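SAMPLE LOG
Freezer: B-3
Tube label: C17
Construct: single chain, 190 aa
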Amino acid sequence: MEGLFFVLIGAALFSHSWSLLGLYHEGRTMGLYVGGLGVVSLIALMLTPMLLGPIDAVGAAVSAETMDAQINVMKVLIILWAGYAIGVGAHGLWEFDDRAIGFYSAFLFVGSLIALVYYAIELEGVYGDDVWIGLSAAALVLTVLAAMLFFYLAIPFIALRKVAGWFILVGSIGVAGVGFAILTSVVDVG
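STRUCTURE (predicted):
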């Protein structure tokens, strides 16, 4: 669940960054890619978590309430960022104003910040350092990207266009990299 989500949202952010950098001449191309990746990323909600499970790093059982809370925080993060990708896709396809995406990015920022704080505090020493650092780092990058999107799109600072584009480009590679590390079992519970 976590790895697939990070790869798909990383790809959606990568495509959106190309639009911000002016590499897509038409918004419909970006809208089709990002919207499609947003819809496909909702599939991650139906998958079993790869890292957040009933057994911790030392083989002890994790309580059901704790495990449910960890998974629910990840599901909220998936829904928020999939909503962002679908919204960007709709704005690109129908050429709406980007300011609505900027204001939605405030919700992304708050949701990603809550996930960052939760994973940084609650996962330390539970599943191992690689899981703790991987999920916290991905949440940190998503939080920074949401803040950049808010400041560029909601309050349109034209000077931030290239800065936001490059931040999202590099950040998307980082998020997708964490996703690939999870999928290839570089980041593993045991």
